[in-house]
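User: I'm preparing a small set of examples for a lab meeting where we compare how different chains pack in three dimensions. I only have the primary sequence for this one, and I'd like the structure in token form so I can line it up with the others. Please keep the answer compact; I'll paste it straight into my notes.
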Amino acid sequence: MLSISLLPKVLVVILVLAIIHDVSTFRKNSLLMKSSGPSSLTDEPSATWFLDAVKTPQADDQSDGEDTTSSATKATSSTSKSAQRDYRRIHVAHGYTQCMPHFDSDWKQAVIERNASCSRSAPFPIEETRRVGFASITTGKPIDAYQNAILTQMFHAALHDNPIHVLCNELSEGAWNKIAFLLNLVMEEMLKPANTRLEWIMWIDRDAIILDACRPLSSFVPPNDPAFDKIQLIINQDAYMFNAGVFMFKVSQWMIDFLNTVLAIRYYEPDTQLPLGEQSALDIIMKKDDRKDNFVRVPWYWFNAYPDETDSVTKYKDGLEPEDLEWFRARKGDFAVHFAGDNGRSGRMVEWEDMIKELGNVWDGKTQRDVSTEIAEYWTSWKEGRLTNKQITGEPGTEEKPQEEKQDTIETKTEPQ
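Assistant: Understood. Below is the structure token output for the 417-residue chain.
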């Protein structure tokens, strides 16, 4: 038996050993808790505690008979790819009404699927080679036909990870909003470092539907060669005059000065006739002696094809090409279709939008027109000073004229667009 004098010492030793055991156990448990994380799943994309965990698919997320494991794998892949796109940077509304249509999860999933489809079947590289973006406008009460058209523009922007800027509230009167907005947009871009700002922007009206989401915007611009530095505008002309519904322009100090001049013409040249408002002003200023060498005119159908006047949806969908289908009418393979001056467009546009959504990627099937080679030949001819009128207009049978005469072929007429 232990003596009474040793008992306190033994008790102290036992107490110390117990404390050491508890501390060791606590440290181990703490490390386990720190490494294992929360005990429930999370939808937070930055969570890394269990990389293979995905939210359990809901009933309406699966088709009948779909394998759950396969769905989980696809969901993980889709989430990873979607996380690479910052939609707050891609879809930018300007104004307080937030007029841009909702780009929901179905659209985002379609972006991933179309990207794979384009990579597989498009006959041209789908990657952007320049910093490019869209600009558009939709003010007033939302109209389904226009909102759906803007969704096609947003879809293209998302697929190529380009921004689309949409004006939601008025800055000026009527169509002059376009000029005021573009001026504001270019000035904002010019305040950014040269190696981060956009290089080219495509203005596209809300009554223009993107037909080919695969084709990159940069495929339309001149090569990145000093020989093309003076080109500031890429335009096309319809049956009447320069069409301001779809055109491309360079982000530059030149463009700031140009747009300022266009806005000012109403006040500093009050006697100048502007039958088509801002479109006439753009055309007049563009052709002045000090600016006429800074724009090029390209074929109508590159990015501004028009629908045929009768049975246009059927002709496009079925790839029909009757003898009376004019060269500027939309065909499979064209970039966009523009419903300019179409009094019944709110109805016809919806038919086209439904058809395009059903059709999917046009390059998965038979197409009628691919302008890739034509574009490359155009810029080569421009650089060498041998552009023909056929290359400028795209009209079959057009007689050939030397490059220096091309700007004089644009005539201002007063018919509405």
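A couple of notes for your slides: Strands lie at 91-94, 132-137, 164-167, 200-204, 208-210, 233-235, 246-250, 295-297, 336-338. Confidence is low (pLDDT under 50) at residues 23-83, 404-417.

User: Perfect, thanks.
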